Amino acid sequence: MRLHVGCAMWTHTPWQRRLLPHPLPPDERLRAYATWCNAVEGNTTFYATPARSAVESWARQTSPDFRFVVKLPKTITHERRLNGADTEVRAFLDAIEPLGPRVHALWVQLPGSFAPADIGGLARFLHRLPRSYGRAVEVRHRAFFEDARSERLLEQALAGVGAEWVPFDTTTLFQSRPTSDAERDAWTKKPRVPRRSRALTGQPIVRYLGRDDPVRTVEGWREWAGTVAGWLREGRSPTVFVHTPDNAEALTLARRFHEDVRELVPEVEALPEPLPAEPPTLF
Of 35, 80, 135, 226, whose CB has the highest number of CB atoms within 10 Å? Predict the structure, then answer.
């Protein structure tokens, strides 16, 4: 029984020397991160299709059971809005091919303007994606969370192709006023939608955003720990990504979430011991 956890990135300046060795060459950074977590969000692919050589390096640095949830480029999801993007999709799929089974899901993150009226186009787009990849969709239009009919239509469209609905839970962030610059910035940029915790497939994916205060972040995920434990007992294989506004403690918090779930479901396989940030000394 395995729970996959991770962060929004595999390299982050506040982690250097404190949590991860530094300096490290680019082709070793993901390997070091993978001793802490067994999944990562592929956010960088949103801005550009990566070079195939870079993706080959990612594959070399991770085991086949490491999970990437790779975000489709914004040219496909935000600029073309899933229409007339066959060339871009083929180029993207060719680029990520070296990851093989590590691609847990193709992540279709849609803009807040993507409304219930657009569900038909989403369904057609998902049908054209290769069945060899999992598919996961994140929506931000409030109607999908507040209107029962819109929610039902989206669930039906996703179920028709075995796709998962990815919740981005920001409720902890918005529980009280921000207390740091990073939190103030997140307040202006992150979606403010109700928490959703219904899984549609055997491989649910959760994105959870806490606070810069680790204590408040842990308090906010208590409900998720119980939900994920329930999924594991049902035989599902969840992946959970932990964010904070500044992400300074996201790496340790992701492991903490894993530990909290293991307390509820002891059968869950433990994560590996992290690579030391500093080499051992004689004294």
Answer: 135
